[in-house]
Design a protein that fits this description.
- It is a single chain.
- By secondary structure, the chain is mainly β.
- It has one helix and two strands; from the N terminus they run αββ.
- The chain has one domain.
- The chain has a two-stranded antiparallel ribbon with strand order 1-2.
């Protein structure tokens, strides 16, 4: 699901998306060795 800034401002519902881009950052202290830096919906 995606809640855009405009959706939030207008009080409208979040929308379903078909994909997401995830940016990982290496983190030796994490169990997997990575942490999520950011993520966002893609078309």
């Amino acid at each position: 699901m995606s809640l855009t800034r405009e959706n939030f401002k207008r009080g409208t519902a979040a929308q379903w998306v078909n994909g997401v881009q995830v940016v990982l950052k290496r983190d030796p202290s994490a169990a997997s060795g990575y942490r999520i830096l950011t993520s966002y919906p893609i078309a």
